[in-house]
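Sorry, I am new here, but would you mind making up a protein's amino acid sequence and the tokens describing how it folds?
***
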Amino acid sequence: MAVKAYDLTGRTAFVTGAASGIGRASAVLLAEAGAAVHCADRDEQGLHETATLIKASGGTAHVHHLDVTDRAQLRQAVAACERLDVMAAVAGIMHSSPVLETRDEDLDRVLTVNFKGVLYACQEAARAMLAQQVRGSIVTMASGAVDTGGPGLLCYGAAKAAVVQLTKTLATEMGPHGIRVNAVAPGWIRTPMTDRHDVAAQTHTETFMARMSPLGRVGEAEDVAHAVLHLASDASSFTTGQILRPNGGVAMPW
């Protein structure tokens, strides 16, 4: 019975940011659980690589080359799903700058991708689920940055905090329709997004982050994908408006 709760056979999932990192790992795992997965990203090559991985394992994958900041593109892609059971809004970008050096264009760019892109995905998914009368699950991607202050993370942290508020608000609005909305807030995860330093600097950063965790390690994309699967599946059927934190214990908020 416990294993069956994670079975997504016959369901359809849509994953943004599916070309790499957490998005790719989530798309692959959702497919392994039985879902037909619609993979969306602006990185066309990475997108096809993800689809190939899914199909090689016997799964079903559809590709949508799009920009999540373009509402019309998202609407068209979601409309291509005959049925939508799961939306995993994972796409995002990283930016780092001290508060006093943050430019308007930096803030606008990060908010547009990391908040508006998630908002658009949530809106289109919720509309589709309502129209199809599907008791679906929407999973947003927040960050451990919402629980702690980090130097240089104003734009990123503010956008992710907005995602948390979106998640809670949408959960209250969609709950009466049987649609659940939850967020995942990862800690330091080894992905192409965090791998933006030279080898020595990256090793130093990962060693430091591992020491901060009671588990003594940094996370992998698959660690977050399992959280996405949990929230997408019937195993979390009584969970909505919540933040799941696969962060290795670095932050333990009440």
About this structure: The chain has one domain: 4-190+222-244. The beta strands are 12-16, 36-41, 60-65, 86-89, 137-141, 180-184, 189-190, 219-220, 243-244.
